[in-house]
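User: Run a structure prediction on this.
Assistant: Running it now.
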Amino acid sequence: MRPHTHHARKALLAALTAGITLSVGGFGTAMAANVGSAPTEHGAAQRIAAIGNGQAKNVILFIGDGMGDSEITVARDYLHGAAGSFEGLDTIGQPSKLNDTQAATGQYTTYSVGDGIADKGKAVITPVTDSAASGSGWATGTKTYNNAIDVDTNGNPQMNLLELAKAAGKATGNVTTAEIQDATPAVLGSHSTLRSCYGPQGKSDGSSDNSAKNCEASQLLQNGGIGSISEQLLQTRADVTLGGGNKYFKQTAQAGTYQGKTLEEQAAARGYNYITDPTKLSSVTSADQNTPLIGLFSSGNMPTQYLASEATAQNPSKDAQPVQCTTNPEWLGKSGASLADMTDSAISLLSKNQQGSSNGYFLQVEGASIDKQDHNANACGQIGETDDLDKAISAALKKVDISNTLIIVTADHAHTSQIVESQPAYALSTVLKSPVDGSRIVVAYGTADTDAKNDTGGYNGGSMSHTGTQLRIAASGPGAQRVSGLTDQTDNFYTIAKTLGLASSSQEIAALSNDAKLAIAKDGQTISAQLSAFNGDASVSYQLTDPAGTSIAKSVSDSTVSGIRLNTTAITPIDLSQHLEEGKSYILTVKGLQSGVEKTISFQGPAKAASGYTPVTPSAKADGHGITSADDIGTLGTRQLGRTGTAVVAILLLMLAVGSAGGLLLAWRKGVFSK
């Protein structure tokens, strides 16, 4: 048997087994999740495979956090009357609107696979999801446990839509009325085993450090991890990021290149246009990878449009004096930063920057506090936030061409509010009077996780709960028909990825790192490795050895969130200076922790100019974290399979592309893989 043939055959058999599943689940016919088991692999929870061939230049995903059918109906009945319609929410998905024959409406399932980090690795079907697990589902195509951000059930980072859109050369945006570190915006820019790991000092304003409570220790930079959510958002580098949470940018980096600097200072050093004044949003005229925009307009979540209403125990006087909602004087819509304002600005900025105008863009917009006010049993609060989302959708429809832009409107999970006939005896409720048709609307809340009634029958803060019911999903534009019928949250990942032409299967995503490059560069007194084009990876590991194989230095590998977090589609430096001695030879190996791609380079430690060391002159700095271009020093190489193994992989990928398990078996019998 020739060298490598035995190993190639073993690899083929393993891949053949997996390939049969891939050809069914990734390329063709309808499918369903495996009943009775937890679908934990990438794409395993899809309910459909590929329907339609729609291709769009742009995709805008609107998320109403906690916006189940009941929340939509409560807001419609109050704001427009029971016989009325939303201008935006009720337009998307209707074939009779927008002259769009592709428009479609469906429902999708939202379950997670574990109820918190204690279930990491267990893969337990969990009927009621939280925003982190649900957002991870549509962002990555992979189910995970509640409280997890873009990691699988074992804690392994999964590539998300924003990272994949950047790899395809598209402009990207992330807009929310929540803190930008909150679950839904976080799933487009970070990977975290705990959703509460907001910053290097945990979930604080920087005056204290509670990272031990809010972060898994191995994820923190000082412990060799990939860093907190805020630190990763800066590395993912969306062109436009708008929302709240500026108090968390007061936190100070505890390790790494920016140790001792606040996140505000880090943003400035990386070239961001960082603004906190909502009145300045309308004056921003450009945002791109050279100068991305971060606008954080409140210390925490952004103020709601309406002042709070209080849910109370059954009381006949409420029927006689129904509530009407009043505008919150602190609502930032009065200052130019409503959700509609932010959506309008984001679309303008993304569509005219170089990448957006030529390649298109991906934008996510979240109406966050529908959920937050539902938790608070605050009917007026959730109604105002639903209205804000509807107006944001309307703003988008006025700016985009629906023939080349797919718009999807959906939610992350359902919630607790119910329209009922009369005040319930065993639940809190609010009685509203619609200002449109005068109808009496009773909204009940009965899912508090602790006793929610105080001594006078009022609400005392016991948080109302999510529910596990399926959700509405509606779409207009190219590819919209994929949302028809019953799908799963993870199907949304494939709808968006396929419509934009992004890598979506595990194999396609891993292949984005095939052209990865590794170089050694000198910038002043710093000798660093320069990593680029690891576009199928969120993080890497490295090991520095001498020619005899003795380890000199290596990255931490204690957990799935250890390693070096990559600067998405930009150069990532690894400072090697402290490990090098003058004139000595070294070998550096870098491995993509998601793709498995390895790169090696041999080089000599710094020497005096006469000894032949060629310093690299940096042409420019890329967002403050490294050199944008560098010459190789030494031999740049990749650990490869050898000719036989390479041939096997090439043939295997071709066979899988056409989904032909039978073809693989025939080729095996004809001896193709022994040649």
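Confidence is low (pLDDT under 50) at residues 1-35, 608-675.
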